[in-house]
Amino acid sequence: MNWRPVLDVPHLPPVDCWRWAPASPRPTMEETGEKNGGFDVLYHNMKHGQLATKELAEFVRERAAVEETYSKSMSKLAKMASNGSQLGTFAPMWDVFRVSSDKLALCHLELMKKMNDLIRDINKYGDEQVKTHRKTKEEMVGTVEAVQALQVQSGHLQKSKEGYHTKCLELDRLRKEGAPQKELEKAELKSKKAAESFALYIEKYNRVGGEFEQKMSESAQRFQEIEEAHLRQMKQLIKSYSHSIEDTHVQVGQVHEEFKQNVENIGIDILIQRFAEQKGTGKERPASVGFEEYMAALTPEGGKKTRAKAFRIPGLGKRDKEPDSTDSAVPEALNSPLEVDDEGFVIRADNTQNDILSFLSI
């Protein structure tokens, strides 16, 4: 019995919407296909679902490894940025690179975790799938027996048909050759028995074929339900895979947008100002310095006082002047104790205040 896939073409359903149906309400031998292998095709197609589940798990596992490797690479970049030179005005920009790289590493690490969770879901579905297939195999034992019975009856029917045709050809040959009546009657008897045998096998085949058609129809419907549930679950797993990647891409886009905004916010003036604040040596300007005259010490070591030497103008000294009654007062003034003001000048006594040329310097 040949079973062909039928697609509801007018409504153009999704690819996973398909069903198996008999080619005709009452298939003939020419329509059954060789050895009635339709059941084996459907059964192995169901088993191929387990292979698809395992391969999907392997694919997601490989994707998780890729995300883990990418996360580690971004962590290395973040470490490289943190070790960037802190000299110069560009140094603060390395913090922007470090933060961005750390966040990207976390995004891909989170995606790796989601992939691992998805792998567990796939494996869980694979275990349920194995149980479903094992149960289905037990339920379809009757269909397997019906297929085997039909195959046996098909072989008997074919042999009986060939025997019947052979006897008919032999009878026709004897009639054409004008064989004796006895031989003709004998050939007719053999042809009649062959026809009866052939009719009997046709009846058995039709009865077995009816049982096969019923069992196969039920099994085909069950295979369809299993296949639809399998494809529905696989698409749901793929949807979870797609959503995880989509969420990560949104997060990565936000990190890049934040990176771009941080670069824009740190202007050239800010970089220069930070450098000045960190490396500045002070804000006070040096004070103006004036000329200071050298002043000899008023009191030498030992606490002894020295008498200042009088400042004299040439031509006006005692030796250059004529003796006067006031000359005797000068030595007395010099031998008297001297008083010095804050600026280092000697203060004369009252009797010599009018002599402006008698100031002494220290």
Automatic annotation (TrEMBL):
Pfam families listed in its UniProt record: GMIP-like_FCH (PF22699)
Segments of this protein annotated with the region Disordered: 313-335
Keyword terms of this UniProt record: Coiled coil
Superkingdom, taxonomy of origin: Eukaryota
Positions of the F-BAR domain: 29-271
Name the UniProt record assigns to this protein: F-BAR domain only protein 1
Record organism: Ataeniobius toweri
